[in-house]
């Protein structure tokens, strides 16, 4: 049951948050043909044919037809090879039921657009969107044919977006829009105008429209020509500017790498390799924070408490109980830790694991626990910042990151003009510049020295022998163990445990407690495991997480719209 419940919860959330994706049907629309027969009374009889290729089980197809203002959709029917199919309607959304699995299905649809033709004093037009940005499917090969009531030679025809430039006017006045592949979430309105006399039974407006249609076509052609010209210019510009900016970033990254190598070599020359454990240049919690990518895991609190014991601010007075000896001279984060554990959670200058457990068990205390944890972490970070272990390059880094903002508009400009390659290259370039801004944070001489001293210490510990470790001073052993615990460096922790069992077997009984003088490395290791487990449990019980999500849609420019799908 413990395994099944999380799976059920995950599946429920999947359905709740992503219902379409959870039950998505795998399909493709390989062929699509739409014939619109304009009637003398202004109505339009539409016959559609869709060829679906399904993978897996399916229940049918869907068709959304959104009428434009002043029109309505009537007499919607569906069939397959002349056999009627069940249609379920929800406003403008139609579900055509046809179950199956792993097959190709050809479905015919028919419906009437009431008042689909707009008749004016000098012309009649059919301006329609058979699909729009809300369409969730790609038509791999789409043809739309507009048929006039009678043969005619007086025709104006053009399309927008995906339909632009696809029109072909036949001798009898029929117009074909061979759009070929039409991606999902795109518009493709078609606009066809005929002489008014072809629609004698339609209600006509006294308003003229022919000149406006002709002007709209000229404006559209001019817009497309201007866009084509801009596209050529942008393509040429991008082919020059983006490689130059890319080359500059390569130079900067090489410079960054060289600086890193030089600082590392200088630190290696200055390191005192005779020391078992690096010289303590700042407190162990601050050292852990600095050398652990400015991160303090829950184990760092355990390490900080053990460091208070090592420095004799705190002593152990029982198997799981501690007492403050004094507070004079303690660093800011050490004072916060003492107040947090011994005054807030414990009392009378004493603290125990049981008190920690009882305190974190109550939800009302979780906020206070996190508040003190945050204050302690900030104080540790303050000690590191005060040492000025990084060069002050804040203004330079900010200027580098902000410079990438200049390129952001070009992502959308390139996308709008169909320059997908340059759009992708611009995104990569912005990411590269931003990454450089975050990476360029050179250490000072002291900062580099501290970083590589402890890095070398961890490497040496991996090959350290029992005999060499036995000769170490007790304080070096304690500092190495505390550092390993706080950074979750398992080789240090495990080797200390192995060595301690070999040389201090009598202390594994955990019988001696009290002042620091009795706290050898063996007792420290036993205590460290208990402290770490208890603070990890406290961290887990006071933790929290949040999440969010959203969605959107689109519509056709000329009014109306819709799309195709499956279920």
UniProtKB/TrEMBL annotation:
Entry's transmembrane regions: 237-256, 396-414, 420-439
InterPro entries for this protein: DUF2207, YciQ-like_C
Annotated keywords: Membrane, Signal, Transmembrane, Transmembrane helix
The DUF2207 domain, residue ranges: 28-193
Domain Predicted membrane protein YciQ-like C-terminal: start-end pairs: 292-459
Signal peptide stretch: 1-24
Pfam family, one: DUF2207
Listed name of the protein: DUF2207 domain-containing protein
